[in-house]
Predict the structure.
Amino acid sequence: MTTPNTGLPNSGPPNDSVIHDIGFRHYDGPRLGRGWAFRSLLLETLRGAFGLGRPAKVKIMPWVLIGLFTVPAIVIVAVVILTGGQELPLTYTQYPIAMSLLVSLFLAGRAPYAVSRDLRDGIMPLYLSRPIKRQDYVYAKLLGLAIAVWIFIATPVTVLLIGALLAKFPVRDQLLGWLGGMLMAAVLALLITSIALTLASFTKRRGLGVAAVLATLVLLSGFVSVLVSVVTMQRSGSTGTYFAVLDPYLLVDGLSAAWLGVDPQNDFAQPDGALGTLVFTTALVVIVAGMVAILLRRFRKVGGV
Amino acid sequence: MSTIELVGVSRWFGNVVAVNDVTMTIGPGVTGLLGPNGAGKSTLLGMMSGFLPPSSGTVTIDGIAVWRNPAMYKEIGLVPEAEAMFDSMTGEEFVLANARLHGLADPHSATVAALEKVEMLEAKARRIGTFSKGMKQRIKMATALVHEPKVLLLDEPFNGMDPRQRMHLLALLQQLGTDGHTVLFSSHILEEVEDIAGTIEVVVAGRQAASGDFRSIRRLMTERPHQYSLSSSDNRALAAAIISDGSADAVSLTAQGLDVQASDFGRFVHALPRIARDAQISLFDVTPADDSLESVFAYLVAR
Amino acid sequence: MTTITTSGLTKAFGSVTAVSNLTVELPTGVVGLVGANGAGKSTLIKMLLGLIPPTSGSATILGFDCLTDGLRIREVVGYMPESECLPLDVSATEFLVHMARMSGLPASTGRERAADTLRHVGLYEERYRPIGGYSTGMKQRVKLAQALVHDPKLVFLDEPTNGLDPAGRDDMLGLISRVSSDFGIAVVVTSHLLGELERIADHVVVIDGGVLQRSTSTADATQLSGALLVEVTDDADAVMARLRDLGASVAAGRTPGSFAVELTDESLPAAVVAIVAELGVGLVRLQRRRHHLSEIFETSGVTS
């Protein structure tokens, strides 16, 4: 039906050639606003904590640490199954406290990556010129990293659950214990992340941030343990336990005993009665709120548009 | 009078050759140092001011080598590109410290004079950490001027300054050049260089590409036909007349008028008024399109 | 069409007034913002983006109120900062996708627009390499891209040619013109370089110490002045003398062979050509002089 096109103008029916317009395209679709932006930043922080979407060498540290952190849980589970034990030697709430050094290491590595990097790059004007508010940045970073820490802690704790179920321990008890462990893991994650982010937000240098967070968490533990022991020896009663709130791990340890009635990893961290519970809980709220307040102020001052 | 002389100068950092066999003479007056980013301008200024030794060749001022020669520092004022400053000092303290380091007889009045030249007298008591970029640049200039050196080396000196400050300091540099100082300044803002620099030195990837008055340099580029933009009362007729005259290589009609290419610049500019008169065409606009420093520079970089 | 309107806009930080009683209307197209005193410029941008409230006065941008509609404004406005702001360890593609999402674009749209925008600003294979290895010119392009990726109606470009060499400046200025003319996005560009603004700006606003000095279209500010610039190959004195004989007012120029003639009479250009032809001298230049933006700074007593 078609006559051949001789290439001369007006020589036949139009052929099928076309030139497409690849100029700038406008966008009339939905703009998902503040909530979506918040979610994106949170997810980006969360993924960045595990090195996802980054080159391979950035993945090494976090995944090695998860491995190191989980291996003892696997060992415990194996031993329990093989020796026919009746209960987990380390409970769901005790495990993270016993292995707190590895938790600190993980956090110390990831907190500066979440925050110091942004300060060093000076990226705040780019975020602030987008549909978010200043506080959204702080909350997204905090929650993103806290969720990452929570996942980090939850992994071996869940391994313990799997092992307990495989060893045919009573299902209901173990599930309840695991849920309690998940809850305290979340509380711990939020507490130490808020501290670590605040420390990291004061330096643009990643190395310095890592050192500061690690030093603070580790030294605090050592120092507070000594403090509590000394005070307990000097004064009878439970005065010493109140000092435990100064160390985030001891604080959460004590809270798990107070809220859930489980045995704490450290006996001297057990808060005494209702007053003790009140003091510990208040300390938790005050510390987290205080850290968040400092972070908000920090990022109000820094590199605005 | 001071003359900076570079003879066969090269400077390498490992395998990176920042300056490659450059021979140039910078005399009194204002000279512009031009080149793309990374061409070696800052390295050249560093060698001229005694911060770096040449890897080969000699760098002298009035015949005396600059490297490791603190006596020469009195004669040189340098405004470096680096932005880092002593944020905790006030502007005045910083300039005064420089004046004292130079061993001036009356550092205080020299400081005031320098601050006045760069219009920083009002803000002198404020800490440098509170300064805008333009103000920091002016303080840097003041420290380079405070000891009244014969040679002034400036690396992108107007970066961050607003239009009025730029005009004022360009005039200052021009005055210093007229007074017989040797002023060498490197800049990417070619309109400004065109304004005050009598000669230019162009470096490209470490090699010296050209030197002299840029209009003369343009004439030397015989391989590139000169471009002209014309507009007249009858562009088509003018185009035809120019073509038949034979003094141009090519003529094209544009929305504004005519674009003419002429290899023989002299022959064309002499022929044009005659052609227009004989054809009874009124010329409205005759503009050399590539006679600016911007065009000359673009050609030099593209070679 | 007006994009930005301010009315008595003022911002004071304690005893320092960064923006003082600014009342101005900015048209669409490319608007140049010039001025002394850096504090005024960045404070103004922050107020227009709805990030800080004014001390008094008001402003609207694209019909939105800067005081109450900050989030909506930042959905449809782009900003290219002057400062270093790019993460160095990610590729341009990754960075731009993240920025697109942060502007509210859905995931797949963000990816496509990121890729397209990088092409529009002229980044090709390098977009897959980490930004840390880019040249200044490439980094400026990435900064521009993140301001455009979400199809804003207006962009603020803060000193976009900073640090670029002449070729890079040329490219960036061409790109900015295209943003306005081809992409149809209103541009507000700040610059200290009046030559650049003469080249690309349709309208210029001069602010000094937070106070409005001038708001004028570039065309008005660069009108033809009443003088004719002439340049001849030689014998300039003879040409000038002949013109003076005709009663024209002639002043010698700075470069040899150049002079300026006051255009009191429309027949003067023809007279010049006739004289030049008669004397057998070459005509290098015959040009109507224009006013320059720099004249605003010379005469209006703008101080810093």
User: Anything to note?
Assistant: The domain at 220-289 of chain B is CATH 3.30.70 (Alpha-Beta Plaits). Chains B and A do not touch (no CB pair under 8 Å).
